[in-house]
Model the fold of this input.
Amino acid sequence: MPERFNFACYLFEPSIPTAAAAISAVAAALPDHVGPPIEAMVLDFHSHECVTHPWPSGEALLHMHPGPTEIFFAYYASRRFASGRVCISFHGGVTANSITVSLEDMTIAKDMPAILEACFRLRNIGSALASDCVVGAGGELELDAELASSDRALAELLKPLSLAQWIACHPSLTNDHIGFKAVRHSKDTMVLQRAGRTA
Done:
């Protein structure tokens, strides 16, 4: 069983200068979940070397230029649980960035209004930071920054064995979404829910 509920954001052709700017914008978009910053970490997933600093000195780590094998993490206090922590991670690819918001547990999975609100907020902020943004939500879900396009990111989320239970993307991308149903839309965002879910 998954332990943490994630929102995974794929940003195609991003215009953001640093991981710090992206992480800060995403944190600000989820004020009901993300509290004050606690610490930051940079992990090289090839060498497994990592550097961690408490806030506020940790903020300087997020202003570093990320290497291709580095993932940046920022840890925040949870607004929902006194002892919980929310993690926001950033990985930069060649043409895209991936940002993952990992909540402290799976509680939100049964709160459809909260998921819809977060999906809309994250896609809106993601679209402001890049030429396009696709958001997926589900237990332990992640998206690869090396995916070549928003279409590819959406295709990964739509796979039958994907961990995605919710998807938010531009309506033009949602013509073929077998296994999902549209539950809410606006001019710029369509939210899909995996068929068979009742929450």
